[in-house]
Amino acid sequence: MRKTHILCIVILGSFLTIAALHWQLARMAPQWVPSPCACCATFQPPPLANATTLSDGTYTYRLDSDIYNDLFPHLQQYRCRELTCEQSWCPEASAAPLLLLAIKSHPGSSARRAALRRTWARPREMGGFRVRHVFLMAMSPSQKQMNLATEENDEFGDILLWDFMESHHNLSLKERCFLHWVHNSCPGVAYVFKGDDDLFVNLPVLAAYLAQTPNASRFIHGNIERHSAVLRTGKYGVSTALYPQRYYPNFASGGGFIVPGPLIPALYQASLELPVFPLDDIYMAFLTLAAGIPHRHDKRFKVWGIPKDDIALYRDSLTVHGSSVERMEEVWQELWVS
């Protein structure tokens, strides 16, 4: 019995020694540091009014800036600092209107970005539009992921990177900082499609939808959630201290929606006047309401996925959320290549 105890102590001691060595090596490893970026911009948000009240005719919403500063100070105080330069996402001279695909992605999702570049997210002419794409990305604590993302951007030049950390609440910073970027760097864009990197986008059908929809440039297009009830617990939970109301304004589900270029200035101006809400869909809801922009609902934005894996459902959809990399490539090949 005594020998067993001694053996356990020796094994435990060896394990702790190895763990300590790994910890020391991790501390000594060089951390990823962005290179100086002469063409990158930094944006300091202006001071906000103490409170803002908005109404959509059904409900009234009060946003108290002091409370937002107390509970989510980093969202309110962050300066939008870009770490990558604009490449050729918004070329100036072209007869065709620009459709910009702005895709939210994580540094660790390189396989998804590669699949998108092989399918719907690649420079092309489509349905009378000049299509370009950009991946919207923040920082990862993983040095390996950041090194790979840097190499990826060196090769493709399609990543817009900011210096805040990736997190669920920080998705709202992607909305605010992207609005600042597109307002200042891409003023001639005709439409911006915003979506996640696990979307299948039926690009030919989407381009036809924009070309054929009357007054398409007047609306934000998507799967519109109408006065959703506020959740108080879980991933999407919001405290009553931050937001005491029971319902949210209408919003386009963040899985995929379209913003016309002419509406960007009004959304950008609203972003200078409202606090940053910690859920990106709802943050956009308040910006849209403050800007006085109407929504246009279309059920073909399949933000909750599809009930069964049927190629006909993909063919008739504008977007399908939650597609695997393999299935996305299979569907694109079957619909538009073979």
UniProtKB/TrEMBL annotation:
Membrane topology: Single-pass type II membrane protein
Signal peptide: 1-20
Annotated GO MF terms: protein N-acetylglucosaminyltransferase activity
Pfam families documented for this protein: Galactosyl_T (PF01762)
GO annotations of cellular component type: Golgi membrane
Biological process annotations from GO: lipid metabolic process; poly-N-acetyllactosamine biosynthetic process; protein O-linked glycosylation
Lineage: superkingdom: Eukaryota
Cell location: Golgi apparatus membrane
EC identifiers of the protein: 2.4.1.-
Family: Belongs to the glycosyltransferase 31 family.
Protein name per Swiss-Prot or TrEMBL: Hexosyltransferase
Lineage: Eukaryota, Metazoa, Chordata, Craniata, Vertebrata
